[in-house]
Design a protein that fits this description.
Oligomer: heterodimer
Distance between the termini of chain A: 14 Å
Order of helices and strands of chain A: HHH
Largest interface: A-B, 32 and 41 residues
Largest sheet of chain B: 2 strands, antiparallel
Radius of gyration of chain B: 19 Å
Helix content of chain A: over 70%
Number of strands of chain A: 0
Number of strands of chain B: 6
Helix content of chain B: 55-70%
Structural class of chain B: mainly alpha
Distance between the termini of chain B: 32 Å
Number of helices of chain B: 13
Number of domains of chain B: 1
Radius of gyration of chain A: 18 Å
Structural class of chain A: mainly alpha
């Protein structure tokens, strides 16, 4: 049973690396302009919402992978 | 540089010796006051002293205060204060069983010294891709991180020696990673965590003579989280903790609410006739790391512990690889 757990740890690690890359490369450079003094506030808010959405998405994906890897044990 | 090497050796020795010497005295004191709990996984259900938090705290406090006397670092002060507050939260939970939400909220409050002292950055360093500057979000991350690391270590404290052994491996991986990313001062401050855990493991390993209790587990977890924040190695720290994170994730995704282990109706594992651990057949029992480890065949408590340590070593290796990758940008 230990093999699948090692695989799950490894997939989680890859997802952390991939998630970080997505944040740095695509989300961080987003810049909101045109609302004057509210630019910075809106910019941070939107990035925060996207980050929270990504975390929820990652948890959903990890849950699906968990069911896929451990389906026999969980079903039992 | 020589003064830092001397300081690192001194605090490591102090941390190890303090816990190594104090813990047997604490065991006798706890047994005399009848502060013992039943070890359900042992044949005959031996009574084991609890909590070991005071000796863990003593080792951390004395060594970190010596380090503070050497260098007067704000980061070390933040580690001392947050760790001490987390110990108080754990001690309150050891004395009186508190609700499932109490610990996360109280642990969030223990992060206040890090913010007030300004012992944190405002960016997250990701391996291969660089960093993101998130000044406002980072404050929220600090408040979330301490409850996560505290409760994660607490949730893996289910078998003899697992919490202290796991923490030894994870914290030394964190120390090595801090050296790799050239954060030498915080690497020094992280050394006591590994040596305290190692010394405590001597008495916590199977068959345990003492359990860390919530005060011990939360102290170790909160200190780990604080080091990750002040050392700017949050991602690396998370990777080193992955087996424990998976344990919490499996538990939460099967129970679907924040709940204390003792509030569960069904245990994830049962005993065979020869007192090995086997996965339960109860449908409503939570899925945990231990349950998955023993899913194929029953194992002794010692075997399960070593299986968890192998996973810890694997994630420690991944954490060190991550540290090397942090300096690289594609």
């Amino acid at each position: 049973m230990k093999g699948p757990i090692f695989l799950y740890v490894f997939i989680m690690w890859l997802m952390i690396l991939g998630g970080g890359g997505l944040l740095v490369v695509t989300i961080a450079p987003i810049s909101i302009q045109g609302l004057g003094k509210y630019d910075e506030f809106l910019d941070s808010g939107i990035k925060a919402i996207i980050a929270v959405f990504l975390v929820v998405l990652w948890i959903f994906i990890m849950s699906k992978i968990k069911n896929w890897i451990f389906h026999k044990q969980i079903r039992n | 540089m020589l003064d830092k090497i001397i300081a690192a050796i001194v605090v490591s020795v102090i941390a190890f010796v303090t816990v190594y010497v104090i813990t047997p005295i604490l065991i006798k004191t706890l047994e005399k006051r009848k502060l013992v709990v039943k070890d359900y996984n042992r044949v005959g259900g031996a009574m084991v002293a609890r909590p070991g938090g005071p000796s863990i705290l003593a080792g951390i406090m004395i060594s970190e205060l010596v380090l503070y006397a050497f260098f007067s670092s704000i980061d070390v002060l933040a580690i001392i204060l947050t760790t001490f507050l987390a110990f108080l939260v754990g001690l309150a939970d050891d004395r009186k069983v508190l609700g499932g939400w109490f610990k996360p909220l109280a642990l969030a409050a223990t992060a206040i010294p890090i913010i007030l002292l300004g012992a944190h950055g405002s960016h997250l360093d990701f391996p291969l891709f660089g960093s993101v500057n998130i000044p406002e979000l980072y404050l929220a991350l600090i408040v979330i991180m301490i409850p996560i690391t505290g409760n994660t270590i607490n949730s893996i404290d289910v078998l003899n020696g697992v919490a202290s052994g796991f923490m030894t491996i994870a914290s030394f991986a964190l120390t090595i990673s801090l050296f790799i990313v050239h954060h030498y001062d915080i690497a020094m401050a992280s050394l006591p965590l590994g040596f305290v855990s190692l010394a405590f493991y001597k008495y916590h390993k199977f068959p345990s003579r003492i359990f860390p209790g919530d005060s011990g587990a939360l102290t170790l977890g909160a200190m780990y989280g604080t080091i990750a924040i002040v050392g700017h190695v949050e991602i690396i720290a998370a990777v080193a903790l992955l087996p424990a994170v998976i344990n919490s994730f499996l538990f939460l995704s099967s129970v679907k609410r924040i709940v204390e282990h003792r509030q569960l109706k069904s245990s994830p594992v049962e005993h065979t006739e020869d007192f090995k651990l086997k996965a339960t057949e109860h449908k409503d029992a939570p899925v945990t790391l231990v349950r998955l480890i023993v899913a194929n065949r029953p194992m002794t408590e010692k075997e399960v512990g070593f299986a968890i340590f192998k996973l810890a070593l694997f994630s420690a290796a991944l954490a060190i690889i991550t540290a090397f990758m942090t300096g690289v940008k594609i």
